[in-house]
Design brief:
The chain is mostly helical. 62% of the residues lie in helices and 2% in strands. It is built from 12 helices and 2 strands, in the order αααβαααααβαααα. The radius of gyration is 19 Å and the shape is globular. The mean pLDDT is 95.
C-alpha cells in the first residue's frame, strides 16, 4: 500500500511509523520499569545509578535524527520494491510458510553478524570519536538510547535493511515483524535494569542470547560485548567481558 504514495508522502508516513515504533517501545519500557514499577525493580538497576533527565533528553534528540535517516532508507527500499529491484513479496503463497519462518530466522542471524563486525569497526580509534562516541555518551543508558546515534552511524545501522531486501526473499509482513523484534531487543538492551531470571545464563539455549547486563557492560566499559542478539560472536572472537556472568549473577541475586 505504501508503494502507491508519492515519495514525499511516503517519507512522512515512514517517519511517523518509525516514530511510533521507537516511542511506543522505549516509552513502554521506561514507564513500566523506571516509573510505575520502579520500586519492584530498583534492586536490579545494573549500575546502581539513577537515570539523568538531561542525558535522556540528549538520547531522544539524537534518536529523532535517526528516525529521519531510517525513514529515508525505508523510502528508498519501498521505491526500489515498486520498481521491482528488491526480493520483497506480498503473497505468502509465493514461498510458503516454512520459508517465511526460515527467512525471519535468517534475517536475525544476518543482522547479528552485520552488527557485530560493524560495531567493532566503529570502535576503531580513528572512527570511534567521530561516529560512535555519541552513542557512548550514554555510559549509563536508558531505553531512550536505543536510537541515539550520530547521523553517520544511523546510516550504517540502517544499512541492514537494503542488505536484507536485496539478499533474501522476504514477505513484507515478515520484514515488519523483524523490525518490531529489532526495536524491542534494542530497547531492552539499553534498559539499565536486568529483568531476566538468575538462571538465564546457565541454561544452554538461553545463554546464547544477550541480556541487558551484557550490553550495559559494553556501555560502561566499551571494550567488550559487541554482540546484538547473541553472545557467540563475542565468545568466538574473545571479546566477551570476563566478568559478564559474574556481574549478571550478582545483579540477579540482589535482595529486593
Amino acid at each position: 500500500m505504501l508503494s502507491y504514495l508519492q515519495p514525499s508522502d511516503l517519507m512522512v508516513q515512514l517517519v511517523a511509523t518509525d516514530f511510533l515504533r521507537y516511542f511506543l517501545a522505549a516509552g513502554a519500557a521506561y514507564l513500566f520499569f523506571w516509573v510505575i514499577f520502579f520500586e519492584k525493580w530498583q534492586h536490579r538497576v545494573i549500575q546502581r545509578k539513577k537515570l539523568q533527565s538531561q542525558k535522556m533528553w540528549m538520547e531522544v534528540r539524537y534518536s529523532l535524527s535517526t528516525l529521519v535517516i531510517f525513514a529515508l532508507v525505508g523510502t528508498g527500499v519501498v521505491l526500489a520494491k515498486k520498481a521491482g529491484y528488491t526480493l520483497l513479496y506480498d503473497d505468502f503463497r509465493e514461498y510458503g510458510w516454512i520459508w517465511a519462518l526460515a527467512s525471519f530466522a535468517l534475517a536475525i542471524l544476518i543482522h547479528d553478524a552485520y552488527f557485530y563486525w560493524m560495531h567493532r569497526l566503529m570502535h576503531h580509534p580513528k572512527i570511534f570519536r567521530h561516529v560512535h562516541l555519541v552513542h557512548h555518551m550514554s555510559t549509563n543508558p536508558s531505553p531512550w538510547a536505543a536510537y541515539s546515534f550520530h547521523p553517520i552511524e544511523a546510516v550504517v545501522e540502517a544499512g541492514i535493511l537494503p542488505l536484507l531486501v536485496f539478499l533474501l526473499p522476504l514477505h513484507t509482513g515478515v520484514l515488519f515483524v523483524f523490525l518490531l523484534y529489532m526495536i524491542t531487543r534494542n530497547v531492552l538492551g539499553h534498559l539499565g535494569i536486568e529483568f531476566l531470571p538468575k538462571a538465564f545464563v546457565r541454561i544452554p539455549f538461553l545463554k546464547l542470547h544477550t541480556t541487558t547486563t551484557h550490553h550495559d557492560l559494553h556501555h560502561k566499559e566499551s571494550s567488550s560485548n559487541f554482540g546484538l542478539y547473541f553472545t557467540w560472536w563475542d565468545r568466538w572472537c574473545g571479546t566477551e567481558h570476563k566478568r559478564y556472568r559474574e556481574t549478571f549473577e550478582e545483579v540477579t541475586t540482589r535482595e529486593s
